[in-house]
Write a structure and sequence with these properties.
The chain is 52% helix and 11% strand. With 662 residues, the chain is an alpha+beta fold. The strands form six sheets. A five-stranded antiparallel β-sheet has the order 3-4-5-7-6. The chain has a three-stranded antiparallel β-sheet with strand order 8-10-11. The termini are far apart.
């Protein structure tokens, strides 16, 4: 803009170079440009404006490098060709810069410059983006999974998808069809922003085409397999963009087949009509399917062409049942990827509105009720099969179908009753998953038993000074007893290695304890400490996770307690107790039994046995109580599934009675 006629063109603020080299306002009269700034700008105009840095990315035809715009002082991304001698790539790069520069939208990276470098090679200088492509995000564990909350949870990705749809709608209103929408051309920024990239193969409405010769038949006249083979023969990679022209005289950028296999609409592969907004809507539907299911709608390579032309099931819930895709999103994907363009959404905005309505909580209740009935019928048939034989797979099918029916229609009482029935009725056979969990619990119980053995060992060690104080006649029994205790502790502390190994270790420990009980019966008499120790050991080992024969354990420990007395009575061993004149006298074959320690020994053993038995009983009671509380809470929660006022007289009445009796 020219200055007023009466104004001096040199009057006004002076621009001078600051400490960082950028121009700043000064006070010098008549001087607008500092010499340093003038030299910097003139140098930049001579081809040294952009200082190139690290490589940011590389594609089939071009690469993107970081750069510093020395004229403005900002970081940019410079896109240039990998093969400067390729005229098709050159035309595509220039086209991308001009098309992208025309689209002033927050989701379209702004183009700052479109020029040639000192080697006369074209380049685009655009905003430098920070973030990750949607293709990279979808490779992350749990991306798009509703059960995982985080940076890339499903609701956040769906909101980003809405932004992409609106950016594409903006381009459509300007007469621009992208033609190559795919996850790798969508970037999610670090601060919630979203960008649509690679406008190099975009179609401009009203763009003139060169006349086509009749040497090559149109792709639409070829068979499905022939069209797929022709397209695949021009494909440089499984996810690369594709351009196939009908003959060499036609403008390559108005080619018959343009896009990426697996995301191209069927009419793109036919190549018989001018591209319309419907081709981008189809691609957006493919992107939405991949976002929801975690895998592409179509396979890669030539198989993608065949799948696109023949059609496939576009319901994400059918491809990935575990992701629990709502039926509304299923319907959106199916409509967006319809074979006929007229059956798709009328615009990208309509597609965005449909996804937004789902996020806002809108539900198609009639459709959900119908789907719930279908799932209920499936569960009912699976349940009927359980009456003849308890098949774990049928039980899983019935439970999952009934749960899906209840999720689709929470008012469906029959589904709630069926879920309750399946959860309350015990299977005839333990499923493998449950057995593995039971094995884990048994291993935890074995480790807890090992901890109890270590506690008991400490008590036995505390008794050793009393035994020594009582006076030792023979060291062999004491060495055998405490040696057995050490082996007992070692065996009980070994990490669990399965049920069979655990049972063998249990037998070893029981044998060691039988020997200790026998030796104690000889040390201090068969009727003082030995019976109490046998009762304590029976209590502990009867609750061991690997003990299955209680009667056998009872007989073994009873025999260990009575064996010394039986052998003494039979005259095999010297007697350690005498009854005469109303006196009950006990002697020891291994100890002198001095008066004071002889009285303290029974007291010490009593304290140890009471401590071990009490600790074990308390721990066992607490575990049982916790399990009981858990079961009662689970039963209460389950009872809330079915309204209390609802009579249990629906379609399952007779079936329920039959199965409850079983």
């Amino acid at each position: 803009m020219a200055p007023p006629p009466d104004a001096d063109p040199l009057d006004g603020p002076t621009l001078a170079a600051g400490a960082d080299g950028l121009p700043t306002a000064g006070d010098g009269a008549g001087q607008v440009w500092d010499p340093a700034i003038a030299h910097q700008l003139s140098t930049a105009e001579r081809g040294q404006r952009y200082q190139l840095g690290a490589l940011l990315g590389r594609g089939g035809m071009g690469e993107v490098v970081a750069a510093l715009d020395t004229r403005v002082g900002r970081e940019v991304a410079v896109k240039r060709l990998r093969d400067p001698g390729n005229p098709e790539a050159t035309a595509r790069l220039l086209r991308e810069g001009r098309v992208q520069g025309r689209l002033e939208h927050p989701a379209v990276p702004p183009v700052h410059d479109l020029d040639v470098d000192e080697d006369d090679q074209p380049f685009i200088a655009m905003k430098r983006l920070t973030g990750a492509t949607l293709a990279q995000i979808l490779q992350l564990p749990g991306a798009g999974d509703p059960a995982i909350a985080g940076q890339y949870a499903r609701p956040k990705l769906l909101r980003a998808f809405i932004d992409v749809c609106l950016a594409v709608e903006f381009a459509h209103t300007r007469g621009v069809i992208h033609r190559d929408l795919k996850p790798s051309n969508i970037i999610l920024g670090d601060f919630g922003e979203c960008y649509v990239l690679d406008w190099g193969v975009a179609y401009l409405a009203g763009e003139p085409k060169r006349p086509r010769s009749n040497a090559t038949p149109p792709l639409g006249s070829l068979s499905v397999a022939a069209r797929a083979a022709l397209a695949a023969s021009h494909l440089p990679g499984p996810e690369a963009s594709l351009m196939v022209t009908r003959d060499s005289s036609e403008d390559a950028l108005s080619g018959a087949v343009v896009g990426t296999p697996g995301y191209m609409a069927p009419e793109q592969l036919h190549g018989e009509t001018e591209p319309a907004a419907a081709v981008d809507i189809y691609s957006l539907g493919c992107v939405l399917f991949e976002l929801l299911s975690g895998e592409p709608l179509h396979p890669r390579g030539q198989a993608a062409m065949t799948s696109t032309l023949e059609g496939c099931d576009a319901r994400p819930s059918a491809r990935s049942p575990g992701r629990e895709v709502p039926p509304e999103l299923d319907a959106i994907c199916v409509r967006a990827t319809s074979m006929a363009p007229a059956d798709r959404f009328p615009s990208a905005r309509a597609l965005a509105d449909a996804v937004s309505a789902h996020l806002d909580g809108d539900r198609d209740h009639a459709m959900r009720a119908e789907l719930a009935r279908v799932e209920l019928d499936l569960a009912q048939r699976a349940l009927e099969g359980l009456q003849a034989a308890d098949d774990p797979e049928r039980r899983k099918l019935a439970m999952r179908a009934a749960a899906r029916a209840l999720a689709l229609d929470p008012t469906l009482t029959d589904a709630a009753e069926l879920v309750s029935l399946l959860m309350l009725r015990r299977p005839d056979h333990v499923p493998p998953e449950v057995q593995r969990r039971l094995d884990e619990l048994d291993a935890e119980g074995a480790r807890a038993h090992g901890a109890l053995v270590r506690v008991a060992f400490v008590g036995y060690l505390l008794m050793l000074p009393l035994l020594l104080w009582a006076g030792v006649r023979s060291w062999l029994p004491i060495v055998l007893a405490y040696g057995g205790l050490i082996v007992h502790v070692v065996v009980a502390s070994l990490p669990p290695r399965g049920r069979e190994t655990g049972r063998r270790r249990l037998l070893v420990n029981v044998g060691i304890n039988v020997g200790i009980i026998f030796l104690l019966g000889r040390m201090v008499g068969p009727f003082v400490v030995a019976p109490a120790l046998a009762a304590t050991m029976l209590l502990i080992y009867a609750t061991h996770p690997y003990a299955t024969r209680l009667l056998l354990l009872w007989g073994v420990f009873l025999g260990a307690a009575l064996l010394p007395w039986v052998l003494e009575l039979a005259g095999v061993l010297p007697s350690t107790q005498h009854v005469e004149g109303g006196l009950f006298t006990m002697t020891s074959s291994f100890l002198d039994l001095r008066p004071v320690p002889a009285q303290l020994l029974p007291i010490g053993f009593t304290v140890v046995l009471l401590t071990v038995a009490g600790y074990h009983a308390y721990r066992l009671t607490r575990r049982n109580r916790e399990a009981q509380v858990h079961l009662e809470l689970q039963a209460w929660q389950l009872s809330q599934l079915v309204p209390s006022a609802s009579p249990r007289s629906g379609v399952f009445t007779s079936l329920v009675r039959t199965m409850v009796r079983k």
